[in-house]
Amino acid sequence: QIRNWYATYCFLLAVALLVTFTNQIHKWAHMHQGLPRWVEWLQKMHLILPRNHHRIHHVAPHETYYCITTGWLDYPLEVIHFWTALEYVIEKLTGCKPRTDDMKWAKKT
User: Is 43 exposed, middle or buried (CB count within 10 Å of its CB: 0-12, 13-18, 19+)?
Assistant: First the structure.
């Protein structure tokens, strides 16, 4: 019976590990020095989010490339205007415009 579900279990394990390490992977995408070589290799192979790929998100107006684990889905989601559509729905439901308070939270106090 385990043979029938082996691929599913492997997939679920991979998802669980990526979800668990997403915050660390995102942190590594912001680091410019002190990364272990194996992390640099994973970034170079695009197995985890590379620094130069994530940098696109941090260019104003900060409205693109939100995927912070691998970045694999960033381009396809842009092509289908996923984030724009999601922001539109959220704005219609809540009345909150996206990024209107960016400068407020970005200011250092």
Answer: buried
